[in-house]
Design a protein that fits this description.
With 638 residues, this protein is α+β, with helices and mostly antiparallel strands. Helix content is 54%, strand content 6%.
């Protein structure tokens, strides 16, 4: 820390209890009371430097007393500062530093220690040290600004606070990598004017590591909230990037809000920016005030503040019972970038006294509503349509899809809560637009968990809940599970079976279409066999090999269809034998006995099997008809 030495005489002051005495050999003729401390001094050194002391001594002398008693209750810095002022008046050695220069400058102004009462007076020395030394150095400017808190009215009157803030804002907005010396002062090694690292004053030639834009975060977090707020405001007016401002506010909040530090993951922690452990955490009122100020200071720009940090602020605000408007603002900020959230973020415990549900479902509902409202305002999401499994929508459909997947996962997590009422579950599930879900597998899983955890639901309530999902948008695996799910209403199971058969029919038709294309490509390959020796030969050889692999898959499919035909024929014979017996119980025994399962093998190199149920004679006839067409097509090609 830089310093300026004043005076040349040795220390002539000594303390006895709550009193200071000057050991000059002359008896004291003036006693100055500053708080609980008394200073036994002499008139001439004081009145020759201070206009205020001159007037007070003159007034006290008119009373005719030998020893003047003067009371200075309002001197900036108190007794400790007046001790330094007295030493300056006596010419005793003292040092001006960033820690005491603000106190001395304000005290000198209060005591009118101008050039009128002596050349090279205290105002001149302190002002010169401030401008030429302190304000040119980051650390000294920061220290001087911290001392302004104790005497803020005096520092404001002299513009010391403003000047320190301006100095810090200027240095923080300057890229330290552009100036290796002397701007770069934050905890790094000493450098030569050329920028190389110095060792014992000798240039080593080594270059220091580059500083990141967050080098000033930790220092700024040592300021009080009012001063930090003013520093951030000045930085914003200077055009510093919003990301840098948001990073500093995040670091400041994590230091003084214990709840945020506890939830900070180890992967996100930084040894340099780790919040300092406070001896005593701030009170709840101070934390509430900080939360409201953080909400005001944080940039409104989207994706500037980490979503996990916003969830931490929201959770802390709920625990502290912060202002409802503050909580609402945090929810809106999260809603703007909900697609960046994780399932862990959404699982916020319910801190209300009622404790209706384990998790705060209402809060997630409000966040989702705000996200959808912002998407609609931005014109980024349109209802679109679903045709042949393809979603038609706007370019920003991806965030909506991510949010839909996130909400489905959240519903599955909160579904086991027996206190979660059906209307709340339905409202949250229905809030997600239909076009946002490519598949309804996640929603089906959540509904199944809810039905399992709420077995007392009536049949009507079950059907109402299951209407939230579109059976046509279930995958084959989900359809297979749903067809055997006893918790689903019978009407929903029938719909699942119907759309399952449609998917099976489409899969088989697609395989046959690939087979026809393979036959056509074989003819095309024979027509261009003359080019086998040219440069294009390698590409055709690769295509031939791929087609051969697909052909093998199709041959296997034909064999499987033949097996299915035999199986269906046997099933038809069994059904004809039992045709005379009527009733749903007979049909149930037949379906239970045979299972009506079809395994289809896709025409790719990967193999997979999906179990399917058939609906009876109509399905058998369609399979036979399709197989006959395929046989005719194969004979025709050959």
């Amino acid at each position: 820390m830089a310093c300026m030495k004043l005076g040349s005489k040795g220390d002539a002051f000594h303390r006895q209890g709550q009193a200071w005495f000057c050991t000059t050999g002359l008896p004291s003729d003036v006693v100055v009371e500053v708080g609980e401390m008394s200073f036994h001094l002499h008139k001439f050194p004081l009145l020759s430097r201070s206009g205020v002391m001159e007037r007070l001594i003159s007034e006290a002398s008119e009373e005719g007393e030998e020893t003047c008693n003067i009371n200075l209750p309002d001197i900036p810095g108190g007794a400790k500062t007046f001790e330094l002022v007295a030493k300056f008046c006596y010419g005793v050695k003292l040092e001006l530093t960033a820690s005491n220069v603000v106190y001395l400058r304000c005290a000198a102004e209060h005591l009118e220690m101008t050039e009128e009462y002596g050349e090279g007076n205290l105002i001149t020395h302190t002002e010169s040290f401030l401008n030429q030394v302190v304000l040119r150095n980051w650390k000294d400017s920061l220290k001087a600004l911290q001392t302004c808190d104790d005497i803020l009215p005096y520092a404001e009157e002299l513009n010391i606070t403003k000047r320190c803030i301006e100095s810090l804002a200027t240095k923080a907005s300057t890229d330290p990598n552009l100036f290796g010396w002397p701007v770069k002062e934050h905890g790094g090694p000493m450098q030569s004017p050329g920028g190389s690292v110095l060792w014992n004053g000798i240039s080593t030639g080594a270059r220091p590591k580059k500083s990141s834009s967050d080098w000033w975060y930790e220092d700024a977090s040592t300021l009080s909230l009012p001063l930090y707020q003013r520093l951030i405001s000045v930085m914003e007016s200077r055009g510093i990037k919003q990301e840098i401002i948001a990073g500093s506010i995040t670091s400041y909040a994590k230091k003084y809000l214990p709840g945020l530090s506890r939830r900070q993951g180890t992967s996100e922690s930084s040894t340099r920016l780790a919040p300092a452990s406070l001896s005593s955490p701030p009170s709840e009122e101070d934390q509430k005030l900080l939360l409201e100020e953080v909400d005001r200071l944080l940039p409104l720009q989207k994706r500037v503040v980490p979503t996990k940090f916003l969830f931490g602020l929201l959770r802390t605000a709920m625990i502290l019972r912060a202002n409802p408007s503050c909580i609402s603002n945090f929810e809106k900020r999260i809603g703007m970038q909900l697609d960046q959230a994780t399932l862990e973020d959404l699982l916020m415990p319910n801190f209300s006294y009622s404790m209706e549900t384990l998790y705060n479902v209402d809060c997630v509902q409000r966040i989702l509503d705000h996200f959808l409202a912002m998407e609609q305002i931005a014109g980024g999401a349109s209802p679109g349509s679903v045709e042949d499994g393809q979603l038609i929508g706007s370019p920003s459909l991806t965030p909506v899809t991510m949010v839909a997947k996130l909400i489905d996962g959240y519903l599955a997590e909160v579904a086991p809560d027996v206190n979660l009422k059906l209307p709340k579950f339905q409202a949250l599930a229905a809030a997600v637009p239909e076009y946002a879900r490519h598949l309804d597998d996640g929603l089906y899983r959540a509904i199944d968990i809810y039905l399992k955890s709420h077995p007392w639901l009536t049949e009507a309530e079950r059907e109402q809940l299951c209407r939230l999902m579109d059976c046509q948008k279930l995958s084959l695996e989900a359809c297979t599970h749903a067809a055997q799910n006893e918790r689903l209403p019978l009407r929903i199971v029938v719909q699942v079976l119907f759309f399952e058969q449609l998917q099976l029919r489409s899969s088989i038709a697609g395989c046959f279409l690939v087979s026809d294309n393979l036959d056509g490509s074989r003819q095309l390959r024979n027509g261009f066999s003359g080019f086998s020796g040219s440069n294009e030969g390698g590409g055709w050889a690769t295509t031939v090999r791929e087609n051969q692999v697909l052909k093998v898959g199709m041959d296997s499919m034909r064999m499987r269809v033949s097996e299915l035909e035999k199986e269906c024929s046997n099933m038809r014979q069994e059904i004809e034998k039992l045709g005379k017996v009527k009733g749903s119980s007979t049909w149930g025994n037949v379906s239970k006995k045979f299972g009506f399962k079809i395994k289809s093998q896709m025409c790719s190199a990967q193999e997979g099997s999906v179990s399917k149920q058939l609906d009876g004679n109509e399905k058998v006839e369609k399979l036979k008809e399709r197989h006959g067409k395929q046989k005719k097509a194969s004979l025709k090609d050959e």
